[in-house]
Amino acid sequence: MFKSRNSLSRNIHLTCVGWSLTWLTVSLCPAPLQVYSLPVLPACTLRLCFSAQVCVCVRVCVCLLPVALTRRPAAEMSEDAVGLGAVTVLGVLEQAYFSLQVIYARRKYSVSPPATTGPPEFERVFRAQANCSEYFPIFITVLWTSGVFFSQGVSSVCGLLYLYARFRYFHGYSQSAQGRLAPLYLSAKVLWVLIGFSCLGVFLAFCRVYLDVDLLQALGSALSVV
């Protein structure tokens, strides 16, 4: 008796899940696909077994695939931002490399977590990685803001230069405290350049969208008159 109740409860649960997925699929699919998916999906939901869930999930994937493939503006945007994306991926890989260096330093100098102090060699590696991690969110934010509102090419080049400066900073700091200074100043200058480009790009876009004033076009017209 208890077994039959559990089976009935499970069947009701599967039916509810199936109908929920059916509603989600019909609401997300484009209009031409809804006509063909409406009579098929309820049939899958009526199979009160594990295969019903599989059928419904497959139907959801099949119906959502054309939606993803037909969104050309998003694909074009991803192609336009390929430079920024490449710099972002390189930055993430660089952060992973710095983290691995800290792990190796912990093993080499026998400093177990959560301790953050030890020999000076370990502390320099640890502090170099921490400093790079602290500035990474700021870098990513201004990189994409500058790339979207100002110039993707210029922002990508500045991003590569920043990552190179941070790489030199890490290894310079690992060798000596004095070795971090020159790369640190370089990365700070590049970061301020990106901040400036971001502010300028956002300001020009704000004027163009909300004030209906194209400052670049007005400046070009003024220069041509002069």
Summed up:
The protein is mainly α and 226 residues long. The protein has helices at residues 2-28, 31-37, 41-45, 50-69, 72-80, 82-109, 120-149, 152-175, 181-210, 215-225. It has 10 helices and no strands.
Secondary-structure-based class equals mainly alpha
Please state the CA-atom Rg, rounded to the nearest Å.
28 Å
**What is the β-strand count?**
0
Task: Supply the number of helical segments.
Answer: 10
Largest sheet: none
Shape by Cα distribution = elongated
Helix content: over 70%
Portion in strands = under 5%
Explained architecture:
The structure is a single chain. Helix 6 (82-109) runs parallel beside helix 8 (152-175), helix 7 (120-149) packs antiparallel against helix 8 and helix 8 packs antiparallel against helix 9. It contains ten helices and no strands. It starts with a helix and ends with a helix. It has helices spanning 2-28, 31-37, 41-45, 50-69, 72-80, 82-109, 120-149, 152-175, 181-210, 215-225. It is mainly α and 226 residues long.
What are the key terms here?
85% helix; mainly alpha; 10 helices; disordered N terminus; 226 residues
